Amino acid sequence: MMPGGFMRAAEIVETLPTARLDDEALAAVRMLCEHRLPGLIVADEQGRVVGCLSSVDLLKLALPRYALGEPLLARVFDEAHADRIAELLARKPVRDLLDEAGHRIPVARPEATLVELVEMMTRHGCPLILVEQADEGGSLGVITANRLLEKLAAAISEASP
């Protein structure tokens, strides 16, 4: 822990697999599932982070837009229709998914506290936060919602008698 007894962003970052803009959507979904991630970091051809796709964003793409938020319409679709949508989705590059449903990934300083990270993640509605390096540019890594919850639960357990 850093001085002051607070855990900081730099102490809880992880290195996660990254999807590229030109990757096939199906490969990106498989990566998300295989690594049990709440979302995917998306990078451009130079490796620069350009956004993120949450698992919920990807689920939204499995339905026509007019059926989102309409349970009665969603009931009308059968499995064959869902399969056709999945096939169309699978052929798209990640670039298209990012345009349709992606988020700009929130960026935190290495010294950001857990409370600051929670506020940032909830405000942006993105389950990932990119932590920048202090001076050199680039990133130290990523913080996932799961990692943040894990650290918060541990801090609460330590504080409880």
TrEMBL record:
Xref: Pfam families: CBS
Keywords: CBS domain
Domain CBS: 12-70, 101-158
Protein name: CBS domain-containing protein
